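dude i think i finally got it to work??
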Amino acid sequence: MDFGCSDVSLWKEALSSYSSTIKSLNKTNLVSLDDFYRNELPHLLHQRNPNPHITTPELTKLMQWKLTRGKWRPRLLSFVSSLDESVVNSASQKAFQSLPDISKAVSELTVLKGVGPATASAVLAAYAPELTPFMSDEAMEAALGNSKDYSLKQYLLFANKLQTKAKLQDLSSEGESFTPSDVEKALWSSVIGAKSLTSQLDEDTKIRSRSSKRKRKN
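look at this
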């Protein structure tokens, strides 16, 4: 699905296929990690009012989710898991309190070792999905045509585009809520699903080719 697509039904279909796409990857613990990230973590963060924050164990689990769903970079996990609890609490509390200033919120989180704009975006998306989408490679490529720049400036461009797209989807779907985070998940699911289909078609072609060669030999 192209980012410029205006067919609401296609966006809804891509979003609704997110869970099955997660399962189809067959990655160890990804289903449970994704459930934690999308369902458990937001509740934990919001029940800590008036001072919402994330803990080091939660940030570590979030990093596991991010790396398992995307590219595995164990050093980042090592950095995050060794962060001091009070430092993580303080940085995340300042970040959440900075919203809706996304630039300031990301900057508050990136003082933590191992946390760049992409990981910061995942933390913020768990807390405020209606404002801050996760900076995934797939969604970045779809929205901006580039997934190699993980700078704050690039994230702000990305977040703005997904906020705008979410508003358009809301208008088209008669007031149904469609957040920037929903846009990211729909894009991710669409891209991963297309890659999986292409891979399967390539495999089917190879099998037919091998079968055809065997028949010719016989």
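DSSP finds eleven helices and no strands in the chain.
im so relieved honestly
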